[in-house]
Design brief:
6-stranded parallel sheet, 6 helices, alpha/beta, Rossmann fold, globular, 4-stranded antiparallel sheet, Elongation Factor Tu (Ef-tu), domain 3
C-alpha cells in the first residue's frame, strides 16, 4: 500500500474539517491551512501533489491537525469494461460497479493500477470524480490523456483488467435546499462531477433549478456535449450553457456562446447573481478567476464551492 501522506479531502457544511471522514480515508494526515478556516469545499489536487491542498475562507487561526494511522477502506477490485474517446485527448473508462458500492453525485474515488507494465514518480494512484450517476449500473471516469505512465497503462490495459478502488469521498455535492438554484461553472475536464449531478437530478426529477455553464477551447475538446444537450431537453429545470474560447482553431461550426464565463454571461441567463449556490470545477487558474469574478459581482463567499483539477 502506498503510505505517502494525503490531505483531508472534505469539509462539512458549516466549514469545519470533517474529521470522521478524514480519519476513514487517510493513513497519515498533516494538514496546515494558511491561517484560514474554510467556508467552501477544499480543492482536490492530483495525486502527484501529495500533501498539498488549496482551500479558501475567512481569516481565522487553525491548529495543525495530525491524525493517527488509519487504513483507507477498500471497496473492491472492479473490472474495466470499456473505454471510449469522448473528446480530442480525453477518454472515458467504464468499470463494473462493485456490489454494495454507494456514492453521492459529485464524489470521487481513488483508483490504483495493480502491477501496471510501467510506473513513474507520480505513482499508480489517481483520484477521479465519478462522471456517471448513482442510478447507473456502471462507473464511468473521464480524464485528459497526458503522457504519463499511469495514463499510458490505463489506455492500453486489456478489457477485464481489475483495479483497486477505495470508497467514495468528498462533499462537492448538491445542496439540500431546493429553493436556492445551483449554478455549475465547469472548465474542461472539470465537467465530470457535474455530469454525475445532472444525470442523477434528471433521473430523480430533483426540484432544484440547475444551470450548467461549460467552458472549453473548442467543441472538439468538450466531453459529454450531446448527453448534456439531451438532458436539457428532458429536464425542464436544467439549463445548459456551453461556451468556446478558441473557435478560430476549430473545424466545427458553433452557434453558442463564445469567450470566457464572466459576469455579463451569467447575468444573461440568471435573474439574480446573488441568489444561487455556485459550484466551480476546473483548472486552478480557472477556479481562482471564477471565484474572484463572483465575489466582485456581490456573491457571498459562503455561497461558492470549488474543486480544482490540477496536473491531469
Amino acid at each position: 500500500m502506498d503510505v505517502r501522506p494525503r490531505a483531508a479531502r472534505s469539509c462539512s457544511d458549516d466549514g469545519k474539517l470533517d474529521l470522521a471522514e478524514a480519519r476513514l480515508r487517510c493513513r497519515i494526515i498533516v494538514f496546515r491551512a494558511p491561517r484560514k478556516i474554510p467556508d467552501t469545499k477544499p480543492s482536490r489536487m492530483s495525486p502527484n501533489t501529495w500533501g498539498r491542498r488549496t482551500i479558501s475562507g475567512r481569516s481565522k487561526p487553525v491548529e495543525e491537525i495530525i491524525m493517527a494511522d488509519q487504513e483507507i477502506p477498500l471497496v473492491g477490485q472492479p473490472k474495466l469494461l470499456n473505454r471510449v474517446e469522448v473528446a480530442e485527448g480525453t477518454m472515458a473508462f467504464h468499470f463494473e460497479k462493485p456490489p454494495g458500492f454507494n456514492f453521492k453525485p459529485g464524489q470521487a474515488v481513488d483508483l490504483t493500477l495493480l502491477n501496471p507494465p510501467e510506473t513513474d514518480s507520480e505513482g499508480n494512484i489517481r483520484a477521479f470524480s465519478i462522471a456517471s450517476a448513482p442510478f447507473e449500473d456502471q462507473l464511468m471516469f473521464a480524464t485528459r490523456m497526458r503522457d504519463t505512465a499511469f495514463k499510458r497503462s490505463l489506455k492500453k490495459m486489456p478489457l477485464g483488467t481489475v483495479v483497486k478502488m477505495d470508497s467514495a469521498m468528498g462533499s462537492f455535492t448538491l445542496h439540500k435546499n431546493s429553493a436556492k438554484p445551483a449554478v455549475f461553472l465547469a472548465g474542461g475536464i472539470g465537467i465530470t462531477p457535474f455530469s454525475s449531478i445532472v444525470r442523477q437530478a434528471d433521473h430523480d426529477r430533483a426540484p432544484h433549478r440547475l444551470y450548467l455553464f461549460y467552458s472549453n477551447r473548442r467543441p472538439e475538446d468538450a466531453p459529454f456535449m450531446e448527453v448534456l444537450r439531451n438532458l436539457e431537453k428532458t429536464n425542464p429545470r436544467f439549463s445548459f450553457i456551453a461556451t468556446m474560447t478558441e473557435m478560430p482553431r476549430s473545424k466545427q461550426t458553433w452557434n453558442g456562446e463564445t469567450g470566457w464565463i464572466n459576469q455579463e454571461m451569467l447575468s444573461k441567463h440568471l435573474n439574480d447573481l446573488r441568489g444561487p449556490i455556485y459550484y466551480i470545477a476546473g483548472p486552478p487558474a480557472m477556479v481562482s478567476g471564477m471565484r474572484k469574478m463572483l465575489v466582485a459581482s456581490g456573491v457571498d463567499e459562503d455561497d461558492i464551492r470549488t474543486e480544482e483539477f490540477s496536473g491531469y
